[in-house]
Amino acid sequence: MTNTATDILTDLPFLNELSESFRERLMSESRIVEMQEEDIVTAQYSPGDTFYILLSGAIAFSLKVENEMEELLVGQSNHKFTPAGWSGFKEPFRYATTVTCNADSVFVCWEHEFLRTLFEEDAEGALPFLQFIAGQAQHMLLDTWQMLAQLVPVADQSLLKLKTYQSIEQGVSVDTLDLLNRSPFFEVFEEDELKEFESIGIKYNLERGQKLFDQNSPAESFDVHMQGKVALIYSFDPDQKQLDHRIINHDGYLISTNCFSDDQTNYLSCIALAPSTVFRIDAKKLKSYLKKNPELAIRFQLRLLWFYSNRLRSARAKLIRINFDGEIAAVRNLIEQNCTQLDVTSDLHKVPHLLKSTISLQDAIFSLRTLAESGNSLERRIANSALDILTEVVRESDFYNGLLRVYSEVANAPFYYTSKEVRELCAEQFLEVFEHTSYQVKGWENLPDVPAIFIYNHLENHVYNTLPNRFQLTLDSHFISSVILYKKYKNPGIRVVRIPRGEEYGHQYYYERLGHIPVFTRESGSKFDSKEERKKQRDDFFETAGKYLKEGTSIMLAPEGTSSTTENSPKLFKPGAFLLAAKMEKEPLIVPVAVANFDKRLNRTTFAAVIKKPFKISEKVADPENREEMSAFLEAYQKEFRTYIDEAVELANADSWLNALAQD
Questions:
Q1: Lowest CB count within 10 Å: 111, 157, 193, 357, which one?
Q2: In this model, does residue 215 exceed pLDDT 50?
Q3: 297 with 365, same domain?
Q4: What is the pTM of this model?
């Protein structure tokens, strides 16, 4: 080695911590490599023969994405001592990313085969070297979290609220040794070693909403998830407007390893979304135990590198999902990165295909959950990572299957059920479905104690929620009838619905069982074209709706007579709802309910409803039969109602659970 190379290497931060013999062998086998801008340092999937440390210059990390011409940038660095090619430390000894020079760069490098031999022969001497690499790997993770936090604003992340369901039965106790045996991280250690880990740790219980640690606080423990559900949250800015998060509910998953970072600082916050238990090892005790067992310490550090590699893959898969708006692409890429290690008969190869349809989506999720529990080590790890990527898709799948159950319950309700009983059954089923979604309701205090006419802006249904019989259950109206009316009055009310066209048999049978009030619209067909038919059906509507109000059942209808998106709602109001109120002998209250986001996919939004103060039409219009006066009111009220919808949108964008993150 030249004197120049020796001078360069003495600048490596871990060099002085190495034993003299280890340092000499390491330096003697090192090479200084100079590369030009756009040169490829490592190629994704190629054999991981060489390990590099950046001495000067800049590099970029990228991934190949199926069906995309260009590679996806997943990281950049101009930090001195950034490692590249460290996936070669673990099986299958292939590079996980393509690393390219962003500028003329200089590296020091070693062959992985030499390093593996050196680690085996001098475990104690190798420890500072591996600790340095693990610390740098954590910084690469931090860089990826920063990218994710800046890509998606909080309002669009559909973060789970602190309105979760208790996931731990009272009195249930998890055996720590059994947990460590099942943990993917600890599976490489012997039984006696696991018992030692168990002996130096404790079980730590968390209540829902309680924080385990804060971002930027001292990292004083090594934490493993035992049971429950926690969120790991990275905040890019002090106002917590740019976040990246990960929900952890896998037993044996590592929650915190930052006690092994170079600055021993927590890079994330951890908050319990449900009552949870964590296995916690004090950092000083763990490091003391490892120091007494150098060979074990080497395997522990290599396992940390394995863990950081997996975390990077999962985080980069989220980048793929966000950039290409596709969880399927992200999961497919995740499986592709591990395909050389997966058995060709593994059910994981089927998952991307099953994810393509709402009908087979549940099969994909079932397969992943099964593999996460009973697959081999690699299958469990990939399945858990895939489920992390698909968190919102799983929630959406559960919602879709809930819609299927509701339709089936209504359509197949016993023939002797009255329409009122079927409506109550429907409301109970929908209440259960919506309780597992993210929603906000404001204005409960505005609900009257007597039956009323509830008006709302009618939103389109997202095509994703179309049932196999091509029917779409209207989410906004069912939300109002179940979550609002049924909760308040134990009576879901009755809706005014469009008479379906002949080919809409699913639509027709469903609403016939519910006994809703049918009306013709232009979308219903030819009968609406007859002036006589229009007058007759209007008179019938007033009579039927008035009867229900007198009998104590609230009426729900959308004054627009059509549907639209949240952004374009409401359309021009028609006078029907207001004329109905005016014609009643005892004038009923009209309760406005503005809804937002029911036209969006569940995994992209939070539903919202704002209940405004009720009013009587006589307070707004002196003579409802006067067309000019009514038209002026409808035009003005449509604009006013738009402000209600804006209020609902703002409500949906407010993530109340983030307040808990800011609490001390």
A1: 357
A2: yes
A3: no
A4: 0.63
